[in-house]
Amino acid sequence: MDWHILAQQLVNGLTLGSIYGLIAIGYTMVYGIVGMINFAHGDVYMVSAYLTAICLAVLFSFGIDSLPFALLATLATTMLITAAYGWTIERVAYRPLRSAPRLAPLISAIGMSLVLQNGVQLSQGAKTQGVPSLIPATLRFGEGNDFVQITLVQLMIIVVSLTSMAALTWLIQRTSLGRQCRATQQDRRMAAILGINTDRIISTVFVIGAAMAAIAGVLVTLNYGSFDFYIGFVTGIKAFTAAVLGGIGSLPGAMLGGLILGLSEALFSGMVNTDYKDVFAFSLLVLVLIFRPTGLLGKPEVEKV
Amino acid sequence: MNQPSFSRCLLAVALAGGLGLGSLANAQDTIKIGVAGPMTGGYAAFGEQFWRGASQAAEDINAAGGVDGKQIELIKGDDACEPKQATAVANRLLDQDKVAAVVGHFCSSSTIPASEVYADAGVLVITPGSTNPQVTERGLPTVFRMCGRDDQQGPLAADFIVNELKAKKIAVVHDKDTYGQGIADAMRARLKELNADDRVVLYEGLTRGEKDFNALVTKIKAAGADTVYFGGLYNEAGPLLRQLREQGLKVNFLSGDGSLDPAIVTTAGGPQFVEGAYMTSVREARNIASSQEVVKKMKEAGFDPAGFTLYAYAALEAIAASMNGAKTGDGMKLAEWLKSHTVPTVLGPKTWDAKGDLNETSFSLFVWGPDGNYTEMQK
User: Fold this and answer.
1) Chain B residues in contact with A118 (beta carbon < 8 A)
2) Which residues form the domain of B200?
3) What CATH number is given to the structural domain containing B240?
């Protein structure tokens, strides 16, 4: 295999992996703090794709022709509204079940996922929607036919993912809010006794997860151009896999899992066979879980006596 | 205390009787016909075409007096393009709704298992859009189609690739589904006949529902292909085309009827990505002289009858015609009637062979222009 083909596959894999990682954050943070899998998270990402298209359409219809401004405004609006979705979902579907058996919020999550999917289908129609390609710029390295290329959007995806990951790590490790999050994660009851409003912290985690999914939604919509009410399912499963691979509950694990998943898909697809790339990715997951049941960066759970 | 409760009992019995009579009368007034397809899920756009087309047909047939004096009542069945759900829907339509015939399904992978259920019950089923050969190759007497077969459609593309495009290296991609892989294999079988199978440099399947095919595109580039054939639906064809162009591949792109839908311009992200792509499909139904009146009516109602809409319309017309002609609801007799008569439909007069395939089907090649519209190519 030529070097430029290999490099191109690395670019493909990194882009895909960054997106998985961004969405995986939502799964991993929620699992870390309330110990449940938020199956509606993939659909929150789907909603953000719709919001992106709606925001862009509204901005352009008002005659705003500065692309950077339109994109930033869209990103901000989408994050805000998607965060509101995340907050509402937690408030409506999960908080009333806080003390219920573990299975109840899980079922509630699946229900929420169906509500979002069908709600969007009914309100926006079943057809695939799309935004036109806005940023056609591409960076190319190499000559003639032997080149490696990365589109500006792909570059944005990688940079934005890594930046938001770094910002989030700083937030969790260095701020008072982060300390409260970690305390709630370690022992919710003890944290409450010490004066932390755990309900508010759990809401915050849902809001952060949704905002990250919104970033992914905006970037994906710019990169692939099309979406429908069903995209949350496939991407959600992949992101969830990434979260488990990296160690569910671990923030850097989510990003690492996403990147490994994206790279392994692209490289296997490029070197061996596209038909079986998912088989390969999931086999990898099985292997990792056999040797490290808590994922790559997950901490072994200590039984509380 | 006894007296009023007794009278209340009587009232209840009378009410129940009334309801029973009511539903009995209702059953005699209407003929129930199922319309099954992907009403939800990623391919719901096709399901909507089925439903709109069949609904318009039912409205028009009912306005003209219905079937044998009875009104048609349509029952919606949603298979979401999933084989398991398709058989469940088929059973529900038969057992619960007691439909007399079915228009459906869409995805060949759904139509094949569902048609077994209908055939076991001896119920007539006409699919407006399943082109996989296996739909009618299994010897089920009550299964018909309103469209052509992939072993007619695939070869047309292969001839064009070899004779007109003179391709040297061909990449064949499919979506691992019955329809997509079937049509890709039919295309390849014809390449073998043309002694051109050694020109296939890549044969791989992508996953339905995904959007990122960049790794596959890079692989196509590495293989040096000059022509890409894709067996699948527009949901995947659009992003695949876009990523081919974004990675700077100026290859010829061909696909089948599952991709020939205006929606591909949306899924690709703009007409500039679709321009120059070739696709085979059944003749454009909206341009046929016999369909003009229906097309106008539906457009006025706010729905452009694209894709399979008019095929669903014609399927219901055929069902109604057979019921009027054979004067029975028995699926086997309806099937016999259809195989021995010419049915006037919105798509023109149609006849069927012993397998349930249309006797005359003509596929055409279409090419996408720079404005996001496709035109039929002249031979």
Assistant:
1) 40
2) 151-256
3) 3.40.50.2300
Backbone angles phi, psi at B373, to 5 degrees: -120, 155
Closest CA to A116 of A55, A57, A45, A54: A45
**Do the Cβ atoms of B216 and A220 come within 8 Å?**
no
What is the distance between the terminal CA atoms of chain B, rounded to a whole angstrom? 88
Chain A residue numbers touching B215 (CB-CB < 8 A): 9, 12-13, 16, 265-267, 269-270, 274, 277
Number of domains in chain B: 2
- Please list, residue by residue across B104-136, b when 16 or more beta carbons sit within 10 angstroms of its beta carbon and e when fewer do: bbbbbbbbbbbbebbbebebbbbbbbbbbbbbb
Give me chain A's average pLDDT, please: 91
B218/A270 touch (CB, cutoff 8 Å), yes or no: yes
Q: Which residues of A are less than 8 Å from B246 in CB distance?
A: 138, 151
Cα–Cα distance measured from residue B194 to residue B197, given in angstroms and rounded to the nearest whole number: 8
For A27-66, what is each residue's pLDDT tens digit? 999 998 888 899 999 999 999 999 999 999 999 898 887 8
Q: Does domain A3-291 have CATH number 1.10.3470?
A: yes
Contacts of B267 in chain A (CB under 8 A): 128, 130, 225-226
In a domain, B205, yes or no: yes
Instruction: Assess if residue B84 is contained within a domain.
Output: yes
Tell me what ipTM this predicted complex has: 0.89
pLDDT, tens digit (0-9, with 9 covering 90-100), for A290-304:
999 889 988 776 555
pLDDT in tens, A126-162: 778 888 888 888 888 887 778 899 999 999 999 999 9
Q: Please tell me whether residues B139 and B178 are part of one structural domain.
A: no
Tokens found for residue A92: 């409506």
- From A280, A260, A259, select the one nearest A269 (Cα to Cα): A280
Domain assignment present for residue B122? The answer is: yes
Residue A216: name the closest of A37, A7, A40, A41 by CA: A41
Sheet strands (E) in chain B: 30-37, 71-78, 101-103, 124-127, 143-145, 170-174, 200-205, 227-231, 252-255, 278-282, 343-345, 348-350, 363-368, 374-376
**In terms of domains, do B180 and B250 share one?**
yes
DSSP characters over B121-161: TT-EEEESS---THHHHT--TTEEESS--HHHHHHHHHHII
Within-domain flag for B374:
no
| Whether residues B160 and B124 fall in one domain | no
**Cβ distance of A225 and B242 shorter than 8 Å:** yes
pLDDT over 70 at B28, yes or no:
no
